[in-house]
From TrEMBL:
Keyword GTP-binding carried by entry: no
Gene3D superfamilies membership: Aldolase class I, Chorismate mutase
Record keywords, A-Z: Coiled coil, Isomerase, Transferase
Name used for this protein in its record: chorismate mutase
Keyword Isomerase: yes
GO molecular function list: chorismate mutase activity
Species per Swiss-Prot/TrEMBL record: Mucilaginibacter ximonensis
EC assignment: 5.4.99.5
Any Pfam family matching the protein: DAHP_synth_1
Top-level lineage group: Bacteria
Amino acid sequence: MKLNLNIQPLSSWITATKEPLLISGPCSAETEDQLVATAHLLKNTGRVTALRAGIWKPRTRPGEFEGIGSIGLEWLKRAKAETGLPTAVEVATAKHVEEALAAGVDILWVGARSTANPFTVQEIADALKGHDVPVMVKNPVNPDISLWIGAIERINNAGITKLAAIHRGFSSYEKSAFRNEPMWDIAIHLKTLAPHLPIICDPSHISGNRDLIGYVSQKALDLDMQGLMIESHIDPSVAWTDAKQQVTPAALSDLIDHLTLRKPDTNNAQVNDKLAELRNNIDKIDDLLIQKIAERMKIAEQIGTYKKENNITILQVNRWDEILNKRVNYGKALKLSPDFTEKLLELLHTESIRRQTEIMNEGQAAGQQAEKLTHV
Ligand code: PEP
Ligand code: MN
């Protein structure tokens, strides 16, 4: 089901100076000189459309730099007056919203830690009522699309129609090369639920280090995200927050120069014909897959009936291990990643077991009802 959001197009509140749309600036405003000098260098790249800076910083541990506070708003005013760049800050309380709006900040964003807390989001939404300011909502720290959607809906219900989502990756227990796992499928899911909601990618917080930012940015553009928010600092080596992931304005410019801009479609008839042919082939295979999966389920049900008649348990771990090992190896030979084959088989197996359980427990209405509820 699509989300019922009342949203104005991105172009109604921000126009990219140059493609791709780029919002950049330091993780934190530290000093007036640092902010204003960074803003000038960013403006001079000719690439940047808006200046970001954290004034109030949500820190995971107390004692870390918690942001310069309201004085930073004065610095942002000066940076905007001198460069002409519209400004963006993170807001986490009603007071932040009021102060930022009073200081003429152009765009507000809700940070990942705030999105994870509906009380905070509602407080921000209430403070926004009656204001016509663009708001960007970062995904929550944890991989929960409902929290992300909930925050977007709360802000939208407050009358904010100049809305965008920011994809900044998700916290994960397993350590990887990324500071925050991109989990692109969650951003894609949001896009399918709300096709008109612009999504901006924040490769800085996904990457956590400078080296991955180009790769993540390219992937975001290839997934048709509408823009990038990248942290930039005049001298990242001495940055007070997120030093490892910030880039100088010159490095930012170079990074953007190396991105390839692709279009979602083309007018070239030959290319379109070829694409249509390939998509047609995919559709045929998908139909076959569904048909075969339905056949597989029918057989699983027959096995269920047979096991019931002969008092055999549904799950036989040895048999499952055998299916898994054989198919994962077969998949490997056909260039399917073991991880993919395993996930696919597990999905099929869970559904087979659910059906067999239904057959085993026929007549036990309460249990069946409970199984159904856990499988919605
Ligand atoms: C930030 O943008 O500097 C920030 C704190 O980001 P996030 O809310 O994504 O952690
Ligand atoms: Mn940061």
